[in-house]
From TrEMBL:
Entry-linked InterPro entries: FAD-bd (IPR002938), FAD-dep_Monooxygenase_BioMet (IPR050493), FAD-dep_OxRdtase_2_FAD-bd (IPR003953), FAD/NAD-bd_sf (IPR036188)
Similarity remark: Belongs to the paxM FAD-dependent monooxygenase family.
Residue intervals of the FAD-dependent oxidoreductase 2 FAD-binding domain: 30-62
Residue ranges annotated for the FAD-binding domain, each copy included: 131-370
Lipid metabolism found in the keyword field: no
Full protein name: FAD-binding domain-containing protein
A GO term, aspect molecular function: monooxygenase activity
Keyword entries, A-Z: FAD, Flavoprotein, Monooxygenase, Oxidoreductase
The keyword Cell division is assigned to this record: no
Swiss-Prot/TrEMBL cofactor(s): FAD
Originating species: Penicillium cf. viridicatum
């Protein structure tokens, strides 16, 4: 089943403006995106803007209202100003929060501070002059992207499960095979269907299982109507002058508590032997007493944490096994007509604080690469996108382990170095993935086709890239290696 061409108008001189968005001339490229998650919808929106014909296929019967919070930095929003309606909705749903470190007993260990890209004197971030409000409720963010898809009339076909991917080299198409046998064909098929994507067989030649990192995350969102039932939480929200993202550090665990009048969420990441019951699904819920079971000294914790957990609604706490795959050097099929984006290409642990951000960056990069490649060069354009993105994304993946090692030590006195904890560096949030694709497409394509020299510059200046494995990072954690050696490799400064 191919995408229908809704219009014969290929007039490249006519301005097409929809919802205040100026669309690039049509490319004639047909694109099918599998998955209506954050990465899939952003890729669809950006592909539409770049003149491609696009539709989304989603296995669920509708947009899921599950998930808690996500932290998304400026590099994901470099193009937000090009979407006036979406910018307004983002302004309504994003949370202007400060970061604050606490001991587990509830005592502040440092004064609250701004996210690093919003501090005075730092480098100019990719979304400037927008002040980036980092925290969002994931369901609201998904709704925002969905609303933009609706305004652009991007079709979404629901309740279709894709069970296999194929590539027809002779016809120059990628194929997504549905459970009922339907075959969806397009110039480019984008696998944005998450960590369990069936695209690994055609991309890597075998299905790839995610491996446990040895940690479990318990996540919950507190509905506004439930806050009245938790007096300590209600009191803090009434008294605080500004929203906070609180981070409590402990031995082999940490707690993140988002406190705002629009979204309140809590997540506890703890070392936990895999008993086989935690799964990567928002449907895997546990009772409140399970969350803190077996943790010594819980009775001394901040009552705000324990009260919030105990006051959580029934079946609202998700037990999420933190699993990921080793970095994969291939995201595209052999001929390039199938490409993975988001978690299907690169899964993250939450402490990277950048999984959603990288998925959104993917969309802007891929759409621009496909525009540059055009109808005849779409397949090589997909491989150019992979070349431009792989090292950057893999390095960001690795920061998840460095950050977790920083968090899972006794708090002590943080006032002198709190600003340096979980540092991302300007290389991460000054990056504009669309502009980078535009500037480097020809050089990267020449490298792939003619082996001319090419070196990525979307990494810290002076960084010596090295491959790594999940097994190595987990072993470092077991050995208690906490030196942030990764962030000494190149320029991770913020100025």
């Amino acid at each position: 089943m191919a995408i229908a061409d809704k219009s014969n108008n290929m007039d490249t001189k006519a301005n097409v403006i929809v919802d205040g968005i100026l669309r690039y001339p049509r490319t004639g490229l047909d694109i099918i995106i599998i998955g209506a998650g954050l990465g899939g919808m952003m890729a669809a929106i950006e592909c539409w803007r770049k003149g491609h014909e696009v539709q989304i296929i989603e296995k669920e019967s509708g947009l899921l209202a599950t998930g808690d919070i996500v932290a998304i930095g400026p590099s994901a929003w470099a193009n937000l100003q090009k979407y006036p309606s979406m910018l307004e909705e983002w302004s309504r749903i994003s949370v202007d929060a400060q970061t604050a470190y606490f001991n587990l007993d509830g005592k502040p260990s440092a004064e609250p501070f701004e996210f690093e890209y919003n501090r005075p004197g730092v480098a100019q971030h990719a979304a400037y002059p927008l002040k980036v409000r980092t925290v969002l409720a994931r369901p609201q963010l998904a709704q925002m992207l969905y609303h933009q898809c609706e305004r652009l009339s991007i079709p979404i076909s629901w309740d279709i499960s894709i069970v296999a991917y194929e590539e027809d080299v002779a016809s120059s198409v990628g194929i997504a095979v549905a459970a009922d046998g339907h075959r969806f064909k397009a110039d480019i098929v984008v696998a944005a269907d998450g960590i369990g994507s069936k695209s690994h067989m055609v991309v890597l030649g075998e299905p790839i299982r995610a491996m446990s990192t040895g940690y479990t995350c318990y996540r919950m969102t507190i509905p506004t109507e439930n806050i009245e039932l938790i007096p300590s939480l209600r009191k803090v929200l009434e008294e605080q002058k500004r929203s906070q993202l609180r981070i409590y550090k402990g031995h082999n665990l940490h707690v993140v508590l988002v406190l705002s009048k629009t979204v309140t969420a809590l997540a506890i990441t703890r070392e936990e032997e895999d008993a086989g019951s935690a799964v990567e699904s928002w449907a895997s819920t546990v009772p409140s007493e399970r969350v803190l079971a077996g943790i010594p000294g819980v009775e001394t914790w901040d009552t705000l944490i324990t009260d919030t957990i105990q006051g959580a609604a029934e079946n609202s706490i998700v037990r999420w096994k933190l699993a990921m795959r080793n970095p994969q050097t291939k995201w595209t099929s052999a001929a390039g007509h199938i490409i993975q984006v988001g978690d299907s290409a690169h899964s993250f642990v939450p402490t990277s604080a950048n999984g959603a951000c990288m998925a959104l960056e993917d969309g802007a990069s891929l759409a621009e690469c496909l525009r540059r490649g055009g109808k005849k060069g779409a397949a090589i354009a997909a491989k150019v996108h992979e070349l431009l993105r792989y090292q950057r994304v893999t390095l960001v993946q690795r920061t998840g382990f460095t950050n977790r090692r920083e968090l899972h030590t006794a708090t002590g006195e943080l006032s002198k170095h709190a600003l340096d904890l979980l540092r991302q560096g300007k290389w991460m949030w000054t990056h504009n993935s669309e502009a980078y694709a535009a500037e480097n497409f020809d050089k990267a394509r020449s490298h792939l086709e003619s082996s001319t020299p090419f070196q990525n510059t979307n990494l810290p200046v002076g960084h010596q890239y090295e491959d790594w494995t999940l097994e190595e990072e987990v072993e470092k954690e077991k050995l208690g290696i906490v030196v942030p050696d990764l962030k000494l490799n190149g320029d991770w400064s913020v100025v």
